[in-house]
TrEMBL record:
SUPFAM superfamilies: DinB/YfiT-like putative metalloenzymes. A divalent metal cation binds at H135. This is DinB family. It comes from the Bacteria.
Amino acid sequence: MSTTGIITKENFLDHWQGHRGLTRKTIEKFPEKELFEYSIGGMRPFSDLVKEILTIGLPGLEGINNNTTEGFNHDVPFNTKEALLAEWDRQTPLITEYYNKIPVERFAEDYNLFGQFNAPIYDNLLYFVDNEVHHRAQGYVYLRSLGIEPPMFYDR
């Protein structure tokens, strides 16, 4: 198999953190009540989607670094916008810290994320970003349906 590097480890982290910044702006746009109660078509409220993001990225990096495969739990006690944003802000520098501890040589190594998703570490890292983008897009649909202009998707 031939490989060609198209992005550096640092570029990927900048890309991910750019998405995190945009997701934070999206959380800020929500009125408190709608953040926790509003949904369309049976989808979960945006607060639940944010809780999922919070219980995947940093815990996943911790598992990769510690070589543990503990499961995840999205039922976390962040019941206000302020609490969600505080946890978001607490995790942001830790994501950088834990990500930087992973040697690039390990990226192709298989890792069983949360004991459920066995794939190369780089696939797990891409999953963290893909999951966030997917859920942020749901938040954009909610905001638009509420008559609120979401942040520009490229404003990272």
